[in-house]
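Structure tokens please, single chain.
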Amino acid sequence: MSLPVELFIALRYTRSRGRSGFVSFISGASMIGIALGVAALIVVLSVMNGFQKEVRDRMLSVLAHVELVGAGNRLGDWQAVQDIAMRHPEVVATTPYVSGQALLSRGSAVQGALVRGIDPERETAVSGIGEHMLRGTMQTLRAGDFGVLLGSDLARSMGLMLGDRVTLIIPQGQVTAAGMIPRLKQFTVTGIFNMGHAEFDGGLALIHMADAQVLYRYGDAVTGVRLKLRDLHRATTVAQALSTDLPADVIAVDWPAQNRNWFAAVQTEKRMMFLILSLIIAVAAFNLVSSLVMAVNEKRADIAILRTLGATPGSIRRIFLVQGALTGTLGTLLGLVGGCLLAWNIDIVVPAIERVLGIQVLESGVYYISQLPSDPRLGDIVWVALVSLTLSFVATLYPSSRAAATQPAEALRYE
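Here you go.
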């Protein structure tokens, strides 16, 4: 099948080394630069997606997909609210809870913590805390025993082990003849968990819901009801739907709303990283401009001969547009293949580099994970490819216009 003359000539020019190998070297360097920029952008975005997914999963192993909270953090008729929630087809499990602040005291060690009263039987259906127990189990929490489960960092900072006693100090005091004094209650450490998230491991204490109701004087009331959904990505939609059926004094809060600032910061960081790494592709595109300008200067005599044979300025322009586009397309394809292979196999590549260089990329004690997570997404890959191809095409506009403006008589005067 015959090719259009512009494409045929462009392919010849792309394969030709010309009188000077320097032009081919610059063209090859441009292609490699585009490939490296595309690959780097795909890998970095995939790793950022992986970090976001890893942190989100660890957060949701403690947080609920949706929380139904009563006014003033007190919900009296929580059974009716729970029944309303269970009628929604997306809700698969519910559990009531009591939440409050407290100080943990043992000897001279004092630490603030978020205390959550839970129903151990129902909690396992909503959260994954039971799967991250280092010592003990959630079933060791029994009503009236006043046991407590602590995060690993919290227990370590206070020097607590299984069986140790710790005093919970509640800010809401009680009036006595001696004045206002805080309420105190001793608890026994019956379990230690490690969620791999500093916020929870260093500041969360779990007790039985009945004990929390006594401690915070809630009676039969609770703070709210926690829900688990079939699809966590529909949390906002489900929360909005439930709000129309719930009593006016009950608020439905979804997990994206609870962590809006964190997710907004991650998205902003991802966009800025995309823009910054796109400069690598832009630099390679500028090299493509240089190589095409030199190619035009080198082919001035060829351009003049083509013009005398009847080629139009538009044909000449298309020849160099195709030549530059081919270089950019090949570089983009190489970068896409290399970047995707690296992103999908980063759990193999990074450990190999660590073994060769004798270093550790991620310290588990600092980052709570020891391996780089990666989550390549088709949307990111498509955007990277579009940006690379667009910059490559834009880079060809000036050299091709300069080639089209070549006058045959001027070009052949000194040949």
